[in-house]
Amino acid sequence: MENRQTWPPQTDIGPPRLAPPPLPPRRESPSEGSTPSMAHRHI
Question: What end-to-end distance do the CA atoms of the chain give, in Å?
Answer without folding.
Answer: 52
